[in-house]
């Protein structure tokens, strides 16, 4: 099957532990697009990465416009794995912004 014939799957948080594993598992049957931050770590090479800031609605809108331009309107699935974690135990507003607050898009 040609890469362009494969259904598209979007994975947010594609550079994380779970996201990277999902990308590696799905890439043979799907065109995997990672929506992720621009700083390291980066998603596995099996996914194209569209960089965005999940806490910024304008950035989300631009990323989704890029996704639509490159891949069209037919997305087989969106797997939302983006999350914030911090092992310090201290409160951090990024936790609510990334993990709790609703971001429209997928």
From TrEMBL:
UniProt keyword annotations, A-Z? Carbohydrate metabolism, NADP
Q: Which Pfam families match?
A: Epimerase
Q: Where is the NAD-dependent epimerase/dehydratase domain?
A: 9-70
Q: Which domain of life is it from?
A: Bacteria
Q: What is this protein called?
A: NAD-dependent epimerase/dehydratase family protein
